[in-house]
Amino acid sequence: METDLDLLRIELSTLEKEMVEEVERRRVCSENIDSRQYNSWKNLIHYLTLRRADRRDLQLRLHNAGLSALSNSESHIRHQVQAVQKRLGVSLEEKDFATCNYQVSREILSENVTHLFASEVPHQPSIMVTLDSSVANSATFISDLLKAGMTVARINLAHESEKEWKQILQLIREAESISKKSCRIYMDLAGPKIRTKFIGKQRKLDQVPIKEGQLIYLGSSYEEVDEKKDLVISPTELEVLKFLKTGERVFIDDGKIQGVIEKIIGEELVGVRILKIIKKKPNLKPEKGINFPDSKIKINPLTEYDLKVLPFAVTHADLIGYSFVNRPRDIANLMQEMKKHGEKIPSVILKIETSLAVRNLPAMLFEGMKSPFFGVMIARGDLAVEVGFERLSEVQDEILWICEAAHVPVIWATQVMETLHKSGLATRAEITDASQATMAECIMINKGPHTLEVLDSLENIIQRMGTHRDKKRYTFRELKIASRFLARY
Known about the structure:
The chain is an alpha/beta fold.
């Protein structure tokens, strides 16, 4: 009669066999993978094989048997499965074990992090700070940022011009000389910003009243509707209209206005029924973001403006943030364009900010592995609207898990300690959020009047959490609450 330990041996053996088979099935795909990414490529396939089925019962039985339940092993999953098998008495020689063990995976990730973010402290998050000409007005101030922990300076190419960007770069180089610290340069491409634009009689207005239950239109003109009683809003990227279908959701102004597509008239007019307005004043304003979380929109994330500023970015940036990247071919297109402007090209950071990007994340990681170094940013602003605020926490974790399996450094971005940055006083919620951010390899903060205070707080949180947790693996440093109790009672 088979015992549960016998069944565990069989299940783990079957799981490992599936991992090997899935790699072999894709062996031809590995030909274009950069040589230093090969271990990461295999481990990601191994991890996806594990996660394609519900393994909770297996984990519980492993835990009850006093064995590793395979959680916290994303970075070296096949090796961990083999280690558990050996504990169960399966005969495995050293040469049989996967080369990507815990130590190897840490070394790969550490090398990736150091290359991308100029990290000085192993296994602790780097800090990226957004700069523009309003805050980066002296080399001394930037030097203070570097001394306070900044290792990456972010320049958003959607704002200002080449003149201001060059001035900021010059100040950063001077600050490096003053502080004796190095700083990576990260430049964000603007990407296609889908925003509201008023047309017709509303063109000169700064807001238009709307109400729940109202039918408004997305389009380029009033030709098909009555301008006296209907409201037409023009998306700044009209190309999106042809990809929309009835029943799909539409979110405007960071989800404060929610609707559903009710009718489609031709290729350039879409009727949206407003279902919910979460605002004190139910007004619609121009230049507010529009999100289509259910729609499969196929527009090029590289805009004409992006192509115009790309030569500057390739020349001066260490890292390029790729906004609204959704598919592997988007990455291939950017790489092709960058190679037109020099042999040495910056590392690409994939900004995950749509539902489609989340679904396509594994495929995009495999495409990214054609380069020796790249990273991922969890762009939580648009992503929260796209996947829903309730699901954001879950999606953040999923991105972290999959990227850890691929040994890809992650940037945690959007509204990190924003209240402290603006007012000088942090909220309880954002301190908790900042502690969660330490699971990523880099934390991005925006510009604000209290940047040095934010850096000081972040460094404090990073130091404290670093003694308790390595990524999402909790570690057992001395816990004072335990030692005090045992000493006294």
